[in-house]
């Protein structure tokens, strides 16, 4: 015989201490656990049900307030220390090791009698080159030649280039980089050019001993051993960035105007 008790009746019997062993109403039956279902199936038919055992789950206790700072400190110590800002900046600002080749004339075959007077007494080009023995070779050299021809400098026999070459990988020390400003000043004093063209950021850093961005260096008129100097982009960069060719040409025109002004033209 089974008793059909509703929730109110079961609550009343429980308050009176009467244990009802009948199965609960379907609406109140909780999802059976795997272990209890297997045990119920294994029990013989008609056997008295075993007394229920109340199991209390272990409730984790909240951590004590003093443990929080310790955990935070442990997590903080596990993180790797950030690199020092000065060390990172020093690495980024490190200049390549360079050596400067002796100045050589680019258009020695030009007729001095046909040289335009507004070009002055001569020009010195300071630029980084991968072919210092033949600075007008290769794509960058051809572009340099085109730039100088556009300025009519191919008609001047006193156009010189002082090529800077990067030291091979693994070379100890600075390969003479520290002496470049003094060596360049000696070349300028010997040649006495009307203008020095410094092409590229690497050459500007080596020749002027300054680390500002190229845009700021381009905006200034410089002096090298008492000779005016103009900074602009180098041919290798112009090959990669066609959009700055107009700005480079404006720099060259400014150098030409400075020389002409010095000639009284």
Please supply descriptive tags for the structure shown above.
alpha/beta; 7 strands; 265 residues
Broad shape: rod-shaped
Our measurement of the CA-to-CA distance between the termini, rounded to an integer number of angstroms, reads: 127 Å
Radius of gyration: 44 Å
Please tally the β strands and state the result: 7
**Helical residue percent band:** 25-40%
Please work out how many helical segments DSSP would assign: 10
Instruction: Please state roughly what percent of the residues sit in beta strands, choosing from under 5%, 5-15%, 15-25%, 25-35%, 35-45% or over 45%.
Output: 5-15%
Mean pLDDT metric: 78
Structural class: alpha/beta
Q: pLDDT below 50 for ≥5 consecutive residues: which ranges?
A: 36-49, 51-59, 64-78, 83-92
Main sheet summary: 7 strands, mixed
Spell the H/E element sequence. HHHHEEEHEHEHHEEHH
Could you explain how this protein is built, in words?
This protein has ten helices and seven strands. Helix content is 38%, strand content 12%. The radius of gyration is 44 Å and the shape is rod-shaped. It starts with 6 loop residues before the first helix and ends with a helix. Strand 6 and strand 7 form a beta hairpin. The longest helix has 18 residues, at 245-262. It has helices spanning 7-15, 34-42, 67-78, 85-92, 138-150, 180-191, 201-208, 214-218, 235-240, 245-262; strands at residues 98-100, 104-105, 123-128, 159-166, 195-199, 222-224, 227-232. Strands 1, 2, 3, 4, 5, 6 and 7 form a seven-stranded mixed sheet that branches. By secondary structure, it is α/β, with parallel strands linked by helices.
